Amino acid sequence: MPSTSVASVPKSPPTKKRLTIYMLESVLVDDQVQMAYDYMLPLVEEIQPTQANKISWITASVSAESARDINMADLIHESVKSYYSSLESSAALQTSAACPVVSRPLSPSVQQALTHVHPEVCKRFFGCGLVAPEKLRGCSVLDLGSGSGRDCYVLSKLVGEDGRVTGIDMTEDLIQASRKYIRYHQEHFGYAKPNTEFVRGYMEKLSDAGIQDGAMDVVVSNCVICLCPDKRAVLSEAYKILKVGGELYFSDMYASEVVPESFRLDPVLWGEGMGGALYWHDFISIMKDLGFSTPRLVAASRIDVHNPELREKAGDIKYASGTYRAFKLPKHSIQTTALVTYKGTVPDCAECFELDASNSFKVNVPVEVDAEMAAILQYTRFSPDFIIQMTDKPDPSLGSAQQYCHLSPFILADRLGSCMKQCSKTGVAAGSCG
Ligand SMILES: C[S@@+](CC[C@H](N)C(=O)[O-])C[C@H]1O[C@@H](n2cnc3c(N)ncnc32)[C@H](O)[C@@H]1O
């Protein structure tokens, strides 16, 4: 903690607005953090450094006028960058900013691809599980918050030589680390030219990073969106850069109710992902509002908060991890129900294709599906894998108020009876089922 700056700042009256900026002790000397600190200093009237749970943070009192000049989103970005720059390996993770394991069993292709990823890349993997939907050959895929690139290199193998993978991350250090192994994986996979690139930028501003609108077949993300101050901006950008028929498939941490503002300003809760987690119902509403198909829940597990201090802070709010998938469908494509028959042609799914936790399609067994599912199967990359007969029956659920209980990660987690180990070393996690 740079004590000279702290000591020189006079105390403010208690009525002033309080801001909390959290930074890991180990990175406080980092240039980026120093910049954020310098940026704050002229605006604040009191800075109070505090330390707990290996996290140091600064509580600053600012006048209401100065508060308007402080862009909290920038400061959160800076501290998250510094945090991830400082981590040499996933073993050094001091908080559960990365979310818990939440995935279905890995398919044989994914398991096989994973064995090819360079150990140095795996060492700095800060997500959990793996976000790789089915049937990616030839696709353009964007990974939001790609870190050291582990998921991108798995995807590089899955999309094949004619596919394309782009990782975007705001942390320069991780971008450099991921780029180091592009040639290694290209040669390892036997590709004539690389199919993977890493760009530095913000997920909230994909076009500034050179990602074109309507360019991607699939967007994935592994435990990153809960770290972003503006989730709606991230999801809206993802929608823009997807092709029509494209898919967003990602895992993240969700809350059982709206997280109060005080949680967002609490350094430990933010660092653990608990301050930034979206209420799952709000997530569904945002996605629908942006034009996505109703998000489909693929996998979920409850997060047990074992650390007594954090459990007390969380109060009645519960947390779960969830993997959702949602599609960008053509406008007005959701019309009538359909009779669909799976052909058994999706790779690794010869007997049965599980689109989500509630919809699985057995080979050669006709199933009647609602209008939205009919549109998903008709207009996405899964279309050649189904025989689709539109029924001309209007969907009775269209136009009526939608019930989303079946999309709650809490309900699915309880149904699956799963409660997986979280990555945290600090105790938000633990392996027992609640
Ligand atoms: C928990 S790590 C996960 C990294 C990667 N997905 C993995 O599985 O190893 C979070 C990553 O998201 C990046 N990140 C967080 N917020 C971001 C933002 N707004 N824009 C771009 N990258 C961001 C961080 O730099 C960090 O690399």
Provide the CATH architecture of the largest domain: 3-Layer(aba) Sandwich
Q: What's the overall geometry?
A: globular
Name the poorly predicted regions: 1-36, 43-64, 92-102, 418-434
**Span of the ends, CA to CA:** 39 Å
Number of helices: 16
Strand runs, count: 16
What is the CATH class designation of the largest domain? Alpha Beta
**CATH fold description of the largest domain:** Rossmann fold
What are the distinct ligands in this entry? S-adenosylmethionine
Reported for the largest beta sheet, the result is: 8 strands, mixed
Question: Domains counted in the coordinates: how many?
Answer: 3
Cα Rg: 22 Å
Mean pLDDT: 79
CATH superfamily (homologous) name of the largest domain: Vaccinia Virus protein VP39
Strand content: 15-25%
Q: Percent helix among the residues? A: 25-40%
Structure classification? alpha/beta
Domain Methyltransferase: 137-286
Family: Belongs to the methyltransferase superfamily. Arsenite methyltransferase family.
GO cellular component, one term: cytosol
Pfam families: Methyltransf_31
